[in-house]
Write a structure and sequence with these properties.
about 180 residues, 8 helices
């Protein structure tokens, strides 16, 4: 994909994943993949990741998959919960910080400790499906983890983000007038 197409897509929607719904782009990408034999070079940054994954033991691979599934469940619940907060323009920055905080709390758990996480995984449907019960479990767990300091940090980020959006809008209106 050329840089101009990527820049245009980002300018139009702010989300490069929207390219996945563009039929022309999908066909171009499929053709590029079909024309290449063997492995496709994804860039220098991917080489370190590929070496890391190749060097994992079976147990490490299972642990990594478990961690990714836990994060998937928690982040899906978090996103749905935060959507109910009506943050508007402040959502993305606040959600980004919330994910960082959740990762910090996850790092405090030991793999061999039985916990609410195990109960959350026990109800796992897999394949990206999260039940309403799992979502409620995830939200309850997240609400338990978030400290008063975490809540304050989230409020500060949301406030700054919304204020910034309002000020940019005011500036744009002033420039047009």
């Amino acid at each position: 994909m050329d840089d101009e197409t990527l820049a245009t897509q980002f300018a139009q929607t702010g989300d490069l994943m929207d390219l996945c719904t563009n039929e022309v782009w999908v066909r171009e990408s499929a053709q590029l993949e079909a024309d290449v034999e063997g492995q496709v070079e994804a860039g220098a940054a991917m080489q370190a990741y590929a070496r890391f994954v190749d060097g994992l033991t079976v147990e490490q691979g299972q642990s990594l998959r478990r961690t990714m599934r836990i994060q998937s469940i928690l982040f899906t619940g978090l996103q749905q919960w935060m959507a109910s907060w009506d943050l508007g323009a402040g959502f993305e920055e606040t959600y980004t910080l919330a994910r960082q905080l959740v990762r910090q709390h996850l790092a405090q758990f030991k793999a061999d400790d039985p916990s609410d996480i195990d109960r959350l995984l026990a109800a796992d449907q897999g394949a990206g499906n999260i039940t309403a019960a799992q979502r409620q479990q995830a939200i309850a767990l997240l609400a338990e983890w978030l400290t008063p300091e975490d809540w304050q940090a989230l409020a500060d980020v949301a406030s700054r983000s919304i204020s910034s959006q309002v000020l940019r809008t005011g500036q744009a209106v002033s420039e047009v007038a």
